[in-house]
Amino acid sequence: MRVSTLVTIVLVVVGLVFAALGFASAPNSEISPAVVSTYMLTSAAFFAILAVQGLSRQKVWQRFLGVAAIAAALYMIVMAILFFQALRAIQMPEF
After folding, report:
1. What is the pTM of this model?
2. CA 20 to 30 Å from 13, out of 3, 7, 65, 88?
3. What is the 3-state secondary structure (H, E, C) of 17-48?
């Protein structure tokens, strides 16, 4: 296995892990909205690195992976903004 293939696999897995952490921790009221957004933005950063790596390749499937990574990065950025705005607007009741 080539090093670049291993790096691609690691970037995909780490990006998906941070995305899952962001979506899984969003319903938890004890976690700050900034933490949820940070998980999602970190995932977007890994997908952006993967996009740059994929778009610089010659094979069609590798370029397609780069385009898919761009879409995933943009999706994670939009979701981070939406989750931050929505979770910040929620007021916890005080007893």
Report:
1. 0.83
2. 88
3. HHHHHHHHHCCCCCCCHHHHHHHHHHHHHHHH
Closest CA to 44 of 19, 13, 27: 19
The residue among 39, 12, 31, 41 whose CA lies nearest residue 88 is 31
Contacts of 83 (CB under 8 A, 6+ apart): 22, 26, 33, 36, 37, 40
Q: Please, which residues have CB within 8 angstroms of residue 70's CB and are 6 or more apart in sequence?
A: 47, 48, 51, 55
Does position 22 have pLDDT exceeding 80, yes or no? yes
Report how far residue 34's alpha carbon sits from residue 22's, in angstroms, rounded to the nearest whole number.
10
pLDDT in tens, 57-93: 888 988 999 999 999 999 999 999 998 888 888 776 7
Please give the residue that has the higher pLDDT: either 67 or 95: 67
Half-sphere exposure of 80 toward its Cβ, with a 13 Å CA cutoff?
23
